[in-house]
Amino acid sequence: MNDFGIIGIGRIGTSMARNMSSKGIIVSLYDKSHNSLAKLKSDYPELESSLVFDDIYKFISSISKPRKVLVLVPSGPALDEVISILIKHLDPNDILIDGGNTNPNVSFKNHQTIKSKNLLYLGMGVSGGVKGVLEGPSIMIGGDTNAFDQVKNIFSRITSKTINGSKSFEFFGDSNQGHFVKMIHNGIEYVEMQLISSIYYLIINSKKYMYDDVAKIFKKWNDIDLNSYLLEISLLKLTEKTDNGYLLDRIDDKADDNGTGRWMLKHAIDLGCSVTMLNSAIDSRFISNDNNTRSKANKLIIEDKKEYDIDFESLANAYMFCRLINYFQAFLLMDSANKSYGWNISISNALNVWSNGSIIKSKLINKLLSDYSVDNILDDKNVFNNLNELKPGLIDILNTSLINDVSLPCFNEALNYFNQISSSSLSTKLIQAQRNYFGSHEIKIN
Ligand code: 6PG
Question: Does the beta carbon of 258 sit less than 6 angstroms from any atom of ligand 1?
Fold first, then answer.
């Protein structure tokens, strides 16, 4: 009998299986696609002792009880199908772990269904991509505490070491908090990706620099406190060449998404929280895919791009300002979720678990943990002082972008947000009065 079962042997499932097997955890693997299984053992010798199945019932029978089954399939119909089979064929107290990117609302419902069948559930976000999952992912868990107690030893063997020396997995609460924390991670990731991309775009459009120059700037930043995994991979991609020249000259600009950012935006709307950075990052992906509007507008507006100068110190400060605002908004959303849903997600624990193995690992995360009171960010004077110091750099960069017609998604939003939250009076005073006029809504007086 094997220790652990994995359903879904795609790229992430394969990495997870290899990681576990190399730590001596004997795994049973199931995928309904024969292609995923065919060359698995010959391609990866570490999977020698694992058992590979294309029959889910034989797969289930091969795992020792109480069974621990990790499902790594896309959320939606594929996940629904696997769960409906498992709840019929697993035995009481077996543990079903959903390790995919699942909407926290769906994770909550799945937990209820699974619990009603006397099975145990863990909703688990896994970050790191194909390489990270192989080498030591960052894992965010929620669900049944007694299920977690039974599998934590396994997670401690396959994860990385965090900045505070613990292993990069964490239990965030007895329901869907694991998937919620992963969703927040992804929202932060979207903005970090957009900020780097906006910077690349500003530099290239100045017509004074080439991809290699941008890569050199990113390399310099990566050696200081602006360092991050995403910056590191961006600089590699900037210099990547194909047979026909630079990769970036060969690919188009249409960026897709798997939905996690949209879920976070919807959660923020439900909670009445502002996540303008994420909103802008998602919008920029949507706009990139809107062929029809873009091709029509592009024909009607004559682009007149001229050379311009960039102050790189301002750019570095603007970048840091925007990154801080991104985390600030994410923290306030987590705080609001804690209050509204009666949760107790620790923001410092989330940062710690993201500090290694995750896609958003960075020196900023380490700095947030060491220099700021992240669990009470609104009481932290430090963060506001830092933002104030960095703000002139952002204004300088926004001036450059506005004068030269270069769009900088997420940059404008950061300044606007900061100016609004730090202002004693807002434009919404008049909105109150307007609502009162046409809807007789009550006017709130100071
Ligand atoms: C991770 C990533 C990963 C996510 C991709 C794709 O932490 O390993 O967050 O889980 O699925 O980054 O996200 P998009 O397709 O929406 O960009």
Answer: yes
Cα of 402 to ligand 1 centre, how many Å? 31
Q: What percent of the chain is predicted at pLDDT more than 70?
A: 100
CB-hemisphere CA count at 13 Å for 204? Answer: 16
pLDDT digits (tens, 9 = 90+) for 378-408: 999 999 999 999 999 999 999 999 999 999 9
- 213's CB contacts (< 8 A; 6+ apart) are 203
CA distance 444 to 20: 59
The residue length of the chain stands at: 446
- Predicted TM-score of the model (pTM): 0.97
Q: Token pair for residue 437?
A: 């006029």
101 lines ligand 1 (CB under 6 A): yes
What are 402's two structure tokens?
Answer: 């506005």
Amino acid code (one letter) for 296: K
Span 181-205, pLDDT tens digits: 999 999 999 999 999 999 999 999 9
Ligand 1 and 136: CB distance under 6 A: no
Q: Quick: pLDDT tens for 256-273.
A: 999 999 999 999 999 999
Of 78, 21, 64, the C-alpha closest to 44 is: 21
**Quick check: CB of 128 below 6 Å from ligand 1?**
yes
Nearest atom, ligand 1, residue 12 CA: 8
